[in-house]
Each structure stands twice: as C-alpha cells, then as structure tokens.
Specification:
TIM Barrel, globular
C-alpha cells in the first residue's frame, strides 16, 4: 500500500512542513507542571503555521532534553497523544505527524494510529549514527513491519545522516540515502545541516537527487526565505521551525508573517 501522505503532498507546489516544538513534557527535567500550557503553546504555533500557508505539521517533543536513544517513557507518549488529539479536534485541515525524539519510531506509529497522524519522522532509520545519546542503530526491519500491521497508511519520513550526529564508519550521504530508500523502504528522505537551524549543503541535496531521482526529498533544517530557491532546485519541500519563529529565535512562538514570507518565497521559486 502507498501511504496516504505522499499524494497529499504530491507536489502541486513545494511542501512547507512546520515543526511544532512542544514545551517540556511530564517527566522531563524542564517540565513546568502544567499540561494546559503545553497544549495552548502547541495550538498557537499550529494555528500560526496554518495561517501562514503550511502544508503539514510535525509534532515533536523538542523540550524533553536530554533525549533517550531508546523507547520514550509512557508519560511522554501520553502527553504527545493529548496534544495530537487536541490538534486533530481543532480541524486545522492540514495533515500532521510525529517525531518522537530521539528515535522512537514505534511510539510515533502508535501516536499516529491513535490520533490520525499521517506520517512519522525517524532520525535514524537505517545504518548507525554516533550521537549525543551514544550510538543509535536504525530499526527499519521493526519499524516497517510495525507500520504495516498497525497503520499501513502512515508514511515513514527518514533522515539521512541526521543532524547532531556522525555516521558510524563514514560513507557517502548519497549512498546512505539510496539504502534508506531502497533497503529501508522509507517513503521520504530528509537531508539536514549539522545541527538545528543549520543550513543544508546544497551539494548533498544535488547528489541525493541524482542518486534517488524519484524520491520525495525534504530539507530538514536551515531553510529560509533567502535559501528557498536554491534548495527547491533539488528538494520537494522544506521542514521549518527556527526560521519562522518570531525574530528567528528558537525559543519564541511561530510568527505567521514569517511563515507567509517563506511560503511566498517557495511559490516564487516554483514559478
């Protein structure tokens, strides 16, 4: 079955995908003690993305540092489910999905199945990466089988040489991308810079596009109005968070005018 997320972002225009950075959730060191505050913050950012012209949203437990390389705690899944249910009920009319940090694809699938999410982002789907959580190994075997029996319509978006990490054993990014697509059966590939908000190497995008010409290829960090045109020469869409926050500051709320500015730059690049 072809996951439903692909036709919904089937490139009538380049996809603008907004990241809803959740405040710290219950159990995390910086948890503020109020789930209503977490929900209100998430809804406000989601609505700002919609007003600015985003095509989809990624819900991410960004505030839960330090992250685990293993399965996240039950309270994290419960909190993210509550946020996802509220966003689903808000009738935002654009699809959403989950990135359960650092690499909990199984919980992401459960969340998508339970709340109507249409995709998950997986930071390490194939291969192995050295990260600040230690060595993380891809679990494509388990993830794809779990998806197929739990929620076969949910797409798997997979990072290639994900940010805040280095590939164990080296190797070319384009080769890793081909393995992620053809051997890991990812539905979309994500290429990022070295860290949150850092620009992507355009040569990496170009080589990935040449190696995987039919892949859905997304930029995972560092996109902005000024870089949109050259990134979209090779990519099908941009995943954005920091660049569309007020004043471009990560800790600030999403600014719908900055979202609209990026949307306009993307549309201009596509014309």
């Amino acid at each position: 079955m072809i996951p439903s997320m692909l036709p919904k972002l089937s490139l009538k225009r380049p996809a603008l995908i907004g990241v809803v950075h959740l405040l710290p959730l219950p159990g995390s060191p910086r948890w503020g003690g109020c789930m209503r505050e977490v929900i209100d913050h998430a809804v406000a950012d989601a609505q700002a993305f919609v007003r600015g012209g985003a095509d989809a949203l990624v819900i991410e437990n960004f505030g839960d540092v330090p992250f685990t390389a293993a399965r996240v705690p039950a309270e994290t899944v419960a909190a993210m489910s509550r946020v996802g249910s509220v966003l689903q009920a808000a009738a935002l009319e654009i699809p959403f999905g989950y990135n359960v940090l650092r690499n909990d694809a199984r919980s992401g699938l459960g969340l998508a199945a339970a709340t109507g999410g249409e995709f998950i982002r997986v930071n390490v789907h194939t291969g192995a990466m050295v990260t600040d959580q230690g060595v993380i190994q891809g679990q494509a075997f388990e993830t794809i089988r779990a998806r197929n029996h739990l929620c076969p319509e949910v797409a798997v978006w997979a990072d290639v040489h994900v940010k805040h990490a280095q590939p164990l054993g080296g190797g070319r990014l384009a080769d890793a991308a081909e393995d992620t697509l053809k051997r890991g059966l990812a539905d979309a590939l994500i290429i990022s810079g070295t860290a949150t908000g850092q620009s992507v190497d355009v040569d990496d995008l170009r080589l990935t596009r040449q190696t995987c010409p039919d892949a859905m290829l997304l930029v995972g960090s560092g996109a902005s109005e000024s870089t949109a045109k050259r990134l979209l020469a090779f990519a099908d869409g941009l995943i954005v968070g920091t660049a569309v926050k007020r004043d471009g500051v990560l800790a600030h709320p999403v600014d719908p005018q900055r979202v609209a500015g990026l949307r306009a730059a993307m549309d201009s690049a596509d014309s």
